[in-house]
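sry for the spam today, last one i promise. struct tokens for design, 111 residues
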């Protein structure tokens, strides 16, 4: 799991929460995320499926293939997920390094 990016880690953090998944074919699935994989394959339970035509179907379980997913809407609760703490720390370090480089570039010639 160490080689996966932040979006996949965030998907793992959402396990056990209600998510909404829109597929490339236009179908929308809303349910409880049971399991997620590195390839974005997802297992959902207690699912409400909305077809492209608007027909709503209730399903006990679905398995969604990651390559068919357009996007996933996750709960707002995940804004404070632990995987973002590292990202924020790295962002601060990069900003500090850029500020230091910019400060060094302001020197005049001959100093």
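last one done:
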């Amino acid at each position: 799991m160490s080689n996966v990016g932040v979006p996949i880690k965030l998907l793992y953090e959402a396990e056990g929460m209600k998510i909404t998944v829109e597929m490339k074919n236009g179908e929308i699935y809303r349910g409880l995320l049971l399991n997620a994989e590195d390839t974005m394959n997802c297992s959902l339970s207690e699912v409400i499926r909305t077809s492209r035509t608007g027909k709503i179907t209730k399903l006990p379980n679905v398995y969604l293939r990651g390559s068919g997913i357009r996007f996933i809407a996750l709960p707002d609760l995940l804004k404070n997920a632990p995987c973002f703490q590292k990202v924020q720390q790295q962002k601060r370090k990069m900003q500090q390094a850029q500020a230091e480089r910019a400060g060094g570039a302001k020197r005049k010639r001959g100093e």
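Residues 82-105 form the longest helix (24 residues). ok im logging off now
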